Model the fold of this input.
Amino acid sequence: MAAIEKVKVVVLGDSGVGKTSLTYLIAHNKPLISPGWTVGCSVEVKLHRFKEGTQAQNTFFVELWDVGGSNGHRNTRNVFYQPTHGIILVHDLTNRKSQVNLQKWLTEILNQDSSNPTFQQVDVDPEQFLGSTQIPILVIGTKFDLAEEKQRKNQYRRLSSSIAEQCGADEIFVNCFQARSLAPGTSNSVKLTRFFDKVIERRYYSRVSPFSDTRRIPPYIMAPSTPLSNNRPQQYLSPRFYHMD
Done:
């Protein structure tokens, strides 16, 4: 039996926004009853059917790397960022600061190789920088049920401009304790499937370098020069929990 190929999606956002509950819901199609705090990184795995219903249909593992949001591990989180095939940015819809901080998370992952003396840290402009790299990105707002309740009480108003709009990325709103938030056929499910397809397509099927100006792009996210035919299948390993001292 041929090994199933895989892609790695890094899930980023402030501590407490619900990344662990979200990744569990995506991977298992049911809510996590008692979520805990992530120390370091935890990994959930979803079996995804690429281009389902077409002649190109294939099966892939999508690894969802839930990176802990504690500031105490900021200087060591970069060990979880290589390689990165896609990015999910998560914010709490009832916490505006968590949405504003998404740009800091983007800056962190795109500057992950700053320990390299030849690399100069950059100030990320999502609209210009990410538009040129074409790294697949999905923005997810959690605690949608609480946000709706606040909105009814006139205690909540969405920011007029989000990082999803700046990056040209899809954005979905979910209640991680309701499986129907990602039920098949819903708008959320369609956008999530489209995102995973895009990640897989860029990893295994794209023959064109996504970077129009390589001088602006950090070397760690450069497209591989190896022909696609040399992309060997990788045997999937069971999900593990990674901890930092």
Remarks:
- Residues 187-205 form the longest helix (19 residues).
- The radius of gyration is 18 Å.
- The chain has seven helices and seven strands.
